[in-house]
Amino acid sequence: MTAKFSVPILLFITINIANGQAQPTQSTLVFYLQDVGKGPKATVATVIGINGKVWSYNTFGTIFVVDDPVTLSPSSFSTQIGNAQGTITVTLQDGANVNIVLSIVFNNEQYAGSTLEIQSTCRQRDNLRELGVVSGTGRFRFAREIAVLETISYDPTSSQSVIRLTITLTIP
Question: How far is Cα 142 from Cα 26, in angstroms, rounded to an integer?
Answer without folding.
Answer: 12
